[in-house]
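Pilot study result, target chain (322 residues):
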Amino acid sequence: MRIDAAQRGKGLIWMFVLGLSVFVPAFGQTGAQEASTFTSPLHALLPASDVWRASEPPRQFLPETLFEYINGAAESYISYDFRELIVAQYEKKDAPSATLTLEIYDLGGPRNAFGIYGSERYPESRFIPVGTQGYYEDGSLNFLAGRYYVKMMGYDCGPDAEKLLTAVALDVAGRIRGAAGFPAELAAFPREGLVANSERFILRNFQGLAFLRNGFQAGYRLDGLEFECFIVESKDEAAAEEAARQYLDHFRGAGSAVGAKADGWEFQDKYMKNVFVGRRGRYLYGVSRIPDGRQDTGRAYLGKLRSGLGGPQSSAAAGGER
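Predicted structure:
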């Protein structure tokens, strides 16, 4: 639930320099930055437009105040190490009833930005070429670019809404520096049967397990079968070996009989059905939700994952928790 206009301005000190609005927060909370030292780099990402004008100064939210703007969703963003949000409000110069809300979320790294973006997109969304990827639906345009997740909502913009929002999105995307593209690990997922745009990144508690971090997953549909493939990255081979041990011990403790195979392990789980697991280098990988009678598909995709991970290793500097 978004805060009202009176709350939005509370705790902010505004300064106007050379015609550009710049603000610093007068925080009263312990641990917040001092007003005299605060500078937001997100101001440089705000667009310049001949179509829109600011209807109020931009607002800034940090982890400790994000709930004031997106109360119900704040924890999801914070779970991806959210750093800062800037919110800007605009009105159309020739039609002030048409308004635009622009939100720029800084997640600290491309992986984390992809994580929250991936959790909110749908495979059936209508995707557009903005930033790394964007999608448009009913007056809203969201896109991923580097370490940022950008969300835009237009109101009363008429039939040109998509065109108007896309122009602003391209402006913002053009101001974002850094490597574009999805996490390198996604290239390891087999292409056959992959549900396009189903890939996700989970920073912590992958599959609900506290000891698994930096997990990727993707959905598959093949010959009437629906299943998932996953990849979990560790900092090095020893850490991946320990993650595999903990993973298998967890399911043994839950009553699963884990069988060792030449290329990994197999077991059954009440919720994930037949599961096939392997380890290569610093990666733990697997296939889950395979029903009885289709185990050969699970084994085949485990081999495909292993082959996909045999290529160049991605840089540990890409982000994610260690």
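One observation from the pilot: The first strand starts at residue 12 and ends at 17. A full batch analysis is planned for the follow-on phase.
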